[in-house]
């Protein structure tokens, strides 16, 4: 049979080399699995090894695997076998004996096969969690799943060596930054499943395992991605159970119970997305975009202009305030006083009409009337600076936003001090337990109100505090968050201003009639205009005229009387108009100071390395700002400076995917904000730097789409390329229009215009 087995082994190798391993294992796996199920039903667990060793059918498959000499074929057979067993919903014991029949001898006699299982399949490949559990059980523990009495010698030695290799690779910062998310989740699950099998004594005997685990957990807890922090919390939980089973360490609220879900969603997510078409995958939206916008701590539904104040309350920015109106600030803090009084009157009437409603009155909360009422911003600043008075700070934070939005005269003079005080308030230390988020939200809403009502005074302080060594990372992130929200609110704001309509007092008409009469043109048979006398004041500066119109053909009823007047009846509509987007005036103040000196390493500030989360937030804020001035002249003035910042090598090629996503988002916002006519005029004038910036977006996005390991960066790069292609197409049309205009006027186009080349991604067309 030796020659036959060699022939079959060579045949299997060539089938695998030709890419038909799935077809081969689709026929082989059911036979081996049925063979294993037959033996499991007729033999006990203790006699399974002897039964398989003496069975000719088991020896047949064993000899075939020994005859396969091609390492690639062995690897492909092992991979496809694991996937086939998962598809057929094999149990742990069935999967173990199936792997044992095929690979028991070769994994002991061939070091390359053992290395394939314990290194490549654990560190470089990505399998479903059930397959990972089977690999650990077969190649590392080397015992059936039902065998609880492990011999703690060779098995534990191999287990600790495997854990050592895994945690050393898992704990490195380069692995967190460069490895795909699926691979990180897979290696994390492998470490967790292996740690579950060891004891405290075995962990103490290992060298460096505990230190590597703690290092890997701490580096992942600093990540802005929730999935990475979830991996760290899972490993920390299983590690704490080994150290002290009675006191598990829960770093995540979702980690409850005794079992840990090592399938954190990525493996299943990969299965779902593998069947999607390329078109749908390319339509994946930005940043998700997800991570940067979801990482903003402010909820928009709790914002200033979107928060529901109740049926009887309206938001401040939607009202038209009279600047001469006298407002009592005390009424702003306690708007519900009249409503409470009405409720008290109703309850009093109901009590007097019912004898059974007499109940003892609770006097425990009567001290609420003795609380201090803030009506001046200077009093608010003083209360916020008293860190030992928690009630005073909470009361000041509750009213500061309303006082700021009332825009009193003192706000201009105290805006800077109020901004600095709000940034330095420690809400987590002063808030009541369980209400930290509410207190932080009040602080952020107050800062947003200051940025909206007094932008220049507030930005002068915030941009200085952004790079100040006296604030921590959380305060820097909070500053960037409120600047982002304030920019969006200013862009969505609506105000009314008086129209400036230029009209001539005396119009020249060719007809022989007074200038103040309407034109006599009209349907045939219309009567001349007649002035209608107005009743009212003797001095009437408006004139009203009317005339009779003839009947329309086929109509019996009398025609209409049309009135004409020099002034419209709707004076409000004529004199005022809505003005949208107040942000362009303040765009430079938001962006330029924040971009200045971002790459300098100061005391406590290192955006390019340690504080990469702040750098990502900064770039995201700049992208939102440039998006808020879309199609406005300010976008053309600020885009070159932003592109210069994004083109910095330490920024666009940052090792953290979080920063690269922010750069892709900002670059896409630049493409959306520029008007095609400006791009065309810039190319016509020969602005080389700006042309290089646009070309850099295209080449860099192509490089990210081809080589980046992060899936979100890939999808965002495709979106950026689509936006660049659309911008290039619109700019080329504007250039064609400019050329045709020059030809029509008999003027030769500029010499630079012939040297301009616009490239469309994924196309051979050039303009």
Automatic annotation (TrEMBL):
This is Telomere length regulation protein TEL2 homolog. It comes from Rhizophora mucronata (Asiatic mangrove). Gene3D superfamilies: Telomere length regulation protein 2, C-terminal domain (1.25.40.720). Residues 21-262 form the TELO2 ARM repeat domain. SUPFAM superfamilies: ARM repeat. Its main location: cytoplasm. Keywords: Cytoplasm. Belongs to the TEL2 family.
């Amino acid at each position: 049979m030796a020659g036959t087995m060699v022939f079959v082994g060579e045949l299997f190798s060539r089938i695998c080399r030709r890419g038909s391993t799935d077809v081969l294992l689709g026929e082989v796996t059911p036979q081996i699995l049925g063979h294993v199920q037959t033996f499991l039903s007729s033999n006990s667990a203790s006699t399974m090894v002897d039964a398989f060793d003496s069975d000719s059918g088991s020896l047949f498959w064993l000899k075939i695997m020994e005859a396969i000499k091609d390492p690639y074929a062995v690897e492909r057979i092992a991979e496809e076998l694991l996937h086939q067993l998962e598809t057929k919903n094999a149990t742990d014991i069935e999967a173990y004996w199936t792997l044992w029949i095929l690979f028991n001898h070769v994994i002991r006699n061939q070091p390359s096969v053992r290395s394939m299982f314990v290194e490549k399949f654990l560190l470089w490949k990505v399998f479903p969690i059930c397959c990972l559990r089977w690999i650990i059980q077969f190649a590392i523990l080397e015992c059936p799943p039902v065998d609880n009495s492990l011999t703690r010698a060779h098995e534990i030695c191999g287990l600790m060596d495997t854990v050592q290799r895994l945690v050393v690779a898992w704990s490195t910062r380069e692995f967190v930054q460069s490895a795909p998310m699926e691979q990180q989740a897979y290696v994390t699950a492998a470490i967790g499943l292996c740690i579950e099998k060891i004891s405290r004594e075995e962990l103490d005997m290992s060298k460096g395992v505990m230190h590597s685990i703690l290092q890997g957990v701490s580096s992942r807890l600093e990540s802005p991605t929730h999935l990475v922090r979830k991996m760290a919390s899972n490993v920390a939980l299983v590690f704490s159970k080994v150290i002290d089973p009675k006191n598990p360490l829960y770093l995540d609220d979702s980690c409850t119970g005794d079992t840990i879900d090592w399938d954190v969603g990525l493996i299943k997510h990969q299965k779902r997305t593998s069947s999607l078409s390329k078109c749908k995958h390319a339509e994946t939206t930005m940043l998700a975009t997800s991570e940067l916008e979801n990482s903003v701590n402010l909820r928009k539904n709790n914002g200033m202009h979107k928060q529901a104040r109740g049926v009887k309350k309206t938001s401040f920015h939607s009202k038209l305030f009279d600047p001469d109106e006298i407002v009592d600030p005390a009424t702003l803090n306690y708007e519900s006083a009249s409503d409470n009084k009405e409720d008290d009157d109703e309850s009093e009437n109901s009590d007097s009409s019912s004898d059974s409603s007499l109940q003892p009155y609770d006097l425990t909360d009567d001290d609420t009337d003795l609380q201090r009422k803030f009506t001046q911003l200077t009093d608010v600043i003083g209360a916020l600076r008293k860190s030992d008075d928690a009630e005073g700070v909470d009361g000041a934070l509750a009213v500061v936003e309303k006082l700021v939005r009332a825009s009193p005269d003192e706000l201009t003079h105290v805006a800077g001090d109020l901004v600095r005080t709000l940034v330095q308030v420690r809400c987590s230390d002063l808030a009541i337990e369980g209400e930290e988020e509410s207190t932080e939200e009040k602080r952020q809403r107050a800062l947003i109100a200051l940025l909206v009502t007094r932008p220049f005074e507030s930005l002068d302080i915030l941009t200085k505090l952004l790079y100040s060594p006296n604030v921590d990372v959380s305060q820097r992130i909070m500053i960037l968050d409120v600047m982002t929200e304030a920019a969006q609110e200013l862009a969505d704001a609506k105000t009314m201003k008086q129209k400036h309509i230029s009209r001539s007092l005396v119009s020249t008409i060719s007809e022989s009639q007074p200038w103040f009469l309407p034109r006599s043109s009209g349907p045939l048979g219309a009567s001349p205009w007649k002035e209608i006398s107005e009743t009212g004041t003797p001095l009437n500066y408006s004139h009203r005229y009317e005339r009779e119109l003839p009947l329309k053909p086929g109509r019996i009823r009398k025609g209409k009387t049309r009135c004409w007047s020099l002034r419209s009846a709707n004076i409000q509509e004529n004199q005022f108009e809505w003005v949208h987007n107040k942000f362009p005036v303040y765009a430079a103040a938001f962006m330029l100071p924040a971009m200045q000196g971002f790459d300098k390493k100061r005391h406590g500030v290192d955006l390019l390395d340690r504080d990469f989360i702040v750098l990502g937030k900064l770039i995201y804020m700049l992208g939102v700002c440039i998006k808020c001035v879309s199609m406005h002249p300010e976008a053309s003035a600020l885009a070159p400076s932003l592109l210069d910042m994004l083109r910095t090598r330490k920024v666009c090629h940052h090792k953290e995917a979080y920063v690269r996503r922010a750069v892709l988002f900002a670059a896409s916002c630049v493409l959306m904000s520029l008007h095609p006519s400006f791009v065309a005029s810039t190319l016509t004038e020969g602005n080389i730097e700006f042309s290089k910036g646009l070309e850099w977006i295209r080449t860099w996005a192509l490089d990210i789409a081809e080589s980046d390991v992060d899936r979100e960066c890939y999808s965002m790069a495709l979106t950026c390329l689509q936006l660049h292609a659309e911008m290039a197409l619109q700019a080329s049309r504007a250039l064609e229009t400019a050329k045709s205009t020059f030809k029509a006027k008999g003027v030769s186009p500029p010499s630079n215009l012939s040297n301009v080349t616009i490239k469309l991604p994924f196309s051979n067309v050039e303009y």
